[in-house]
Each structure stands twice: as structure tokens, then as C-alpha cells.
Amino acid sequence: MDATAEDGHGGLVVANLVAGESVLAASGALVDHTGNVRVERARDVVFRSVANAAGQRQRTPVRVTADAEATVRFAPPHHGSVVAVPLEGDGIAATRDAFVATDSGVRVGADRVGERRRAAAALPCDARGHGTAYVAGRGRVDQVRVPEGDSHVVSAAHVVAFDANGSISVERSSAIEDTPPACRFRGPTTVWVATRPSPRFTQ
């Protein structure tokens, strides 16, 4: 699959598919397409586990398959940037509204949600495999690399994704009422940070 994340805050993934190629995408992320494509609910158990582990209703991702050459565009449900995250057998954990799409070599599931439900219920989605995952955040999305021995603290309202095998702890401030929890990432790891907060922490 030939796909790119367009620059800017318009937040688009443009995928050029040949016959038989497919993309896994968040339900509702499909903007438009040329050619003939089939859109089917991804019924794999691994997808359903995203909703089940989150303990709430969640739209099931869809599989978009080209019957002939086609160009397909995807976008997140909010205004912001989309970034491409290359995966080489490793994975990332992403917030529930950050996932946009992946190519067919990547599996999406909820393997780590059970470990984090009490601390970080906003992180139910793992993407693992060989390929590229596309995630989105509000405002600009910055990639922050945390060296071994260092730590980096990010407001949970600004976390987009991070290395699935990374070390993370969630801290709450008792001094400031209604402030979002903070996520402390310990290196070596990488975290993707949005410059604008998710409204689920600010409303």
C-alpha cells in the first residue's frame, strides 16, 4: 500500500491501493475514494476486544478493500494533525480517538487495556506488526524520544500514542482540582504528544 499523511492540521491519510489491497480504518474515518472499494466491518475478535476491554460502546474498525486501483482518503473525527508511525514487529498504544488507519500488516487490539483501566482508560488500542499505523492528535503532534534513564511527563489530555512496550505510570495532582492526570514515561521510549488537549479531559 502506498499511503501518506498529509502535512498540516487538516488531518488526512491518502492511500493508493491496487486490486486486492486493504486498509484497516476507524469506523467513520473514510472521507472519499476513487474506483471501486468494499467497506466491511472488521469482525475479527481482536477488534471487538477494543470495545470490550474499554468497558464501553466503541465503533468497530472497518476493512476497506480495493476491487481495482483506487485512492482512498481517511481523516480523524477532530481537527488536527495525522502522523505516520512505522512498525517493524513492535507496536504502539494509542488513545481511543487517535487511531485513524493501518495497512493490512498491522493488527489492532486491546491487549494492554486490562492493565491500565484504572489508571489510563483512555489508552485501549494497541497496533502491532509490520507496516505503518496512522494516528491523529489535536493541534500539532510532536514525537518525543525519551533516553534510557530519563523520564518525560505529559498531561493525559495531550497523549496521542507511545511505545507499547514502554514504561508508564499515571500520577494525579491533589493540589489542583479537576486537572487531568499526568503520564510519566520512562526511557527508553517514544511518546507522541498533541499540542492541544482532548476535550474529554476539559469538558
Characteristics of this structure?
203 residues; mainly beta; Double-stranded beta-helix; ten-stranded antiparallel sheet; elongated; Trp_RNA-bd_attenuator-like_dom; AIM24
Task: Kindly describe this structure.
- This protein is mostly beta strands and 203 residues long.
- It has a single domain (2-201), classed as 4-Layer Sandwich (Double-stranded beta-helix).
- It has two helices and 17 strands.
- The protein has helices at residues 45-54, 113-120; strands at residues 2-5, 13-17, 22-25, 30-33, 37-41, 62-66, 70-74, 80-94, 99-103, 106-109, 125-138, 141-146, 151-155, 159-163, 167-171, 182-186, 189-194.
- The strands form three sheets. Strands 3, 5, 6, 8, 9, 10, 11, 12, 14 and 17 form a ten-stranded antiparallel beta sheet that branches. A four-stranded antiparallel beta sheet has the order 1-2-7-4, with no helix packed on it.
- A hairpin with a 7-residue loop joins strand 1 (2-5) and strand 2.
- The longest helix is centred in the first third of the chain and has 10 residues, at 45-54.
- It holds the Pfam family AIM24.
